Amino acid sequence: MSIDPSLIRILTVDDHPLLRKGIAALVNTEDDMKLVAEASSGEEAIEKFRACRPDVTLMDIQLPGLNGIESLSQIQREFPDAKVIVLTTYSGDIQVVRAIKAGARGYLLKRQVHRELLETIRAVHAGQRRIPQEIAVELVDHPRDDLTPREIDVLRLIAGGNANKEIADLLSIGEASVKSYVANILSKLDAKDRAHAVTIGLKRGIIEL
Amino acid sequence: MSIDPSLIRILTVDDHPLLRKGIAALVNTEDDMKLVAEASSGEEAIEKFRACRPDVTLMDIQLPGLNGIESLSQIQREFPDAKVIVLTTYSGDIQVVRAIKAGARGYLLKRQVHRELLETIRAVHAGQRRIPQEIAVELVDHPRDDLTPREIDVLRLIAGGNANKEIADLLSIGEASVKSYVANILSKLDAKDRAHAVTIGLKRGIIEL
DNA sequence: CTTCGCCCCCTCCATTTGGGGGATCTATAG
DNA sequence: CTATAGATCCCCCAAATGGAGGGGGCGAAG
């Protein structure tokens, strides 16, 4: 029962069973990799990580519920040398910045993946970082301030079709405050109006549908 | 080289290679199914369909580029007895209605899929239809008119942060026309304002990010 | 301690939206 | 032919928006 030191033990985290199956199928055709666990939520990811101590973790950041980045940070806190590769569907995503800040070693778009996935797993396992150029550009293009929690609240309510006054009531603040939040949001997101802000917020993963 | 009549020959259409791999892995563990082709775009789907004449086609409707529903309709036109199951990520989706109108025999959310996928494949292959309740409810809740092409144009431009006057210029029509389109959009989508319309449009799959 | 960021509140005002109407014209379906 | 649906345009008007200022408190980080 000795452990082959060259065998890369992998944990996958994704809420789509089919995607996990796809990763499993891909990984298990490789001699030097082995899928040791799967998780479908942030909480489960943390549990499975504790239990298995995988060499490399492949993690979707847009998980149902609240976490994704959260569970990534927590894993990093507990296991500072955890090697996590983030998988995502969309590229233009502020989540990327957060993921990298939270300690992700690699970043991949679900779309490309084939060779890249295997290469990235091996590179990250070898201690390297793999952030695709496409994403690095994003980081330069949008060094923009992240929205504050309150601003995100407001943006979410905007997306829900609430007028400033309604937002004010819902948040128990004055309409004037809402207006200044909206102004900040538009400025930070470089949006032309609230509808545009919604589009950008969704694109960047600041809010969800 | 005789063809086993009980063997269900399957074509998968999805732009995510990993997802196709997942489906492949799942399908190939079943004795009565065989994956005979894969496509990653609408055009490719049509080609592959012509070439392979699969018994059942699993198709994602949110394909890159323009098609999805388009290629489904085209396949149905050419091969009226084609059995297509539509796969999608999100549920609240007007695409569903279109897909069903276009001749889809089954409808599945990527999320659930496991048993359901196999069951649905077999059911559809046997000539049945499989529209989950969850979706059927949508159809009742939103028997709403689909947006007209022009309205969709306008909605897309709204999402891009364009003011009515800008939309008018971009479409080379009068601002008054834009205003009436916007009014129609708000009414049809049951949206409170343009920002809300964007949210709903994205949720229903009328427009994309 | 002092600064800075976040959060809250305010006023004034031009511009834009959105909700009522209604009116042509064209193409297509019954 | 007639009805229907889509695309285009028009008016009026109340309400909301967004852009420009301003101020103040509070907590964390320097």
UniProtKB/TrEMBL annotation, chains A, B:
CDD domains listed in its UniProt record: LuxR_C_like (cd06170), REC_NarL-like (cd17535)
SUPFAM superfamilies: C-terminal effector domain of the bipartite response regulators, CheY-like
GO terms assigned for molecular function: DNA binding
Domain HTH luxR-type: 140-205
Residue(s) carrying 4-aspartylphosphate: D60
GO terms for biological process, alphabetical: phosphorelay signal transduction system; regulation of DNA-templated transcription
Name under which the protein is recorded: DNA-binding NarL/FixJ family response regulator
Source organism per UniProt: Silvibacterium bohemicum
